[in-house]
Amino acid sequence: MTGPGQMLRRPLNPYLAALVSAVVLIGTLALAIEQRAAILRDGREILLKTEPVDPRDLMRGDYVRLGYTDLSSIDETLVTGPWPDRDTTIPVWLTLAPGEDGAFVARSASFSRPETVAAEEVVLKSLPVRVTVAQPSGGLNAIGRLEFGIERYYVPEGEGLEIEKAQNQGRTTVAVRISPDGAPQIARLMIDGETLYEEPLY
Amino acid sequence: MLRRYLSRELDQWTRSGLLAPGQAQVLLADHDRRYTGFSLSAVLAVLAAVLFGAAVIALIAANWEVIPRATRVIALLILLMAGLAAAAVAVRRGAPWVAEAALVFTLLCYGAGIALVAQMYHLSGDETGFMLTWAVGALVVSFAFASAMAAAGAGLLGFGYLLAVQDLFSGSGTNPQDLSSYATVLALAFAVGVAAWRSRSAIAGHLSALLLISWVMWVIFETTELEPGYVLAALGAVAFGAGSFTPSPLTGTISRHGAVSAYGAVMLLSGLGLIQVSLVDPGLGVEMALAAFILVVSVAVLAVAGGENRLVRRFAYFAFACETLYVVGETLGSLLGSFGFLFLGGVALAVMAFAVTKIEKRFKKGEARP
Predict the structure, then answer these.
(1) Chosen from A16, A19, A21 to mutate, greatest number of chain B CBs within 10 A
(2) What is the per-residue pLDDT for A176?
């Protein structure tokens, strides 16, 4: 066999192999944890109101499913700036501002990161979502249901029911911290403004 | 199994004077040295590792609040390191299957770890990231230890990533984000291929090839209007041609009538089958022409590579039998009723079985000659 081939197949010292693997596996986990902790630590906090995802479908196992009032499904007229040329799957950027009761609502949406943001506003980036674009042959501009990666709240088994009940009555709010690049992280879950669970950093 | 067969045959050869006395022991010893393979204890060790790993995942999934979060993370990291340490010690002591089992356990713990982070921070909906991270972890472990199980695991996780990404982007046309996921799947397929080669794992090699084929089909399906059946058949024809009529400069890399040509044959015949079942209301003439074509192709494949490659041979028989039954069903099915169809189908298969035994005999003769 040729030189480079032989080198690629040469077995590594097993202890070195274990070390390399440990560094990569543990390193990636630590990095993921630190990424989320950094948002919790340094992110800007906003309040979001939740709505039931599907009222008939209570409690799926050990997490509560959260939908966000006014954010999960947005009005297509909020979109500023150009739409994509054709149907695609891309993230949507929302610009949020505090509403009358202090909970944040969507003020505008766009398909690229908004450049100017007022002091009281904050940007939130969604996961890639299906976007349908009107063609000359017909059809309407439409955006699928938005998700932000914060649609689950894991609770100890059995405690989810009360939260879902409160959510159905519109009493559940969530405090979310948002990083400068629009990544959200749940910080506290509240019912009637009272903190039920508060997230430790680690 | 293989060893028993081998030792019986060696005895036979020694008795009939084909092997010098004592030669049989040398050959068996050589076989034992290279073939540490598939013993029951090895299989049980890997299964035990899978169960332990599944237990860890179940514990995480139950969100066991009795243990504080930080403790859970640290416990998981300790399990990870213990698995890797056990694998390293097992490699040193010359117990490769114990090492493989320990690595399987380690990788399951790693998957549990990724899930735990998602649970700790209430993350949702990122299956693609989950699969990709896990697959890359498996690749790193496979490269480091030259581990066959980890390479196969990476292949499976590669399929997981392909499915997740394809589900997310299905039918959305081409855009820059698609390009990066196309590139990622392709890179995974190649990385699994290299890992398979390094760890000498045939299973991982097949997974890598299948991932590559799925990738090609996915890209073609998403970016063009072509019918997948035609594409699959065309790719198969090219691969079969490349594998069975290898030009001499390439004979070092592609073995003649080897794996490439087997994949080509399978893809070609499945592609043609796909075209046939997806025909909409074609009329009897077209259908019969296509059926005749498929029959001719399977015979041609058999004639070209059947003598050298058992997989090609079996698949060609299989395709021929399926096609014959299909033709009988399409032409005479409604005329005959179920009894007649079963009877005629049985006759057709019996004739074919007779033909196959004749063909097999000829191939055997051909193999015996050189």
Answers:
(1) A21
(2) 93
Of the residues B120, B122, B132, the best mutation for testing chain A's interface (the one with the most A CB atoms within 10 Å of its CB) is B122
Phi, psi of A86 (to 5 degrees): -150, 180
Q: How far is A9 from chain B (nearest CA, A)?
A: 5
Residue type at B304 in one-letter notation: V
Of B85, B124, B144, which has the smallest distance from its Cβ to A150's Cβ? B124
Alpha helices in A43-149 (DSSP H): none
- Please state, rounded to an integer, the average pLDDT across all residues of chain B: 83
- Highest mean pLDDT of the ranges A36-45, A60-69, A86-95, B25-34: A36-45
Residues β-bridged to residue A184:
A178
A66 residue type, one letter: L
Q: Tokens for B355?
A: 């033909």
User: In A145-175, which positions are buried (b, 16+ CB within 10 angstroms) versus exposed (e)?
Assistant: ebbbbbbbbbbeeeebeebbebbeeebbbbb
Buried b (16+ CB within 10 A) or exposed e, A19-30: bbbbebbbebbe
Please check the confidence at residue B95 and state whether its pLDDT lies above 50. yes
ipTM: 0.85
- For residue B137, pLDDT over 90 is answered with yes
Handedness of CA A162, A164, A170, A176 (dihedral sign): positive
pLDDT band at A59 (very low <50, low <70, confident <90, very high): very low
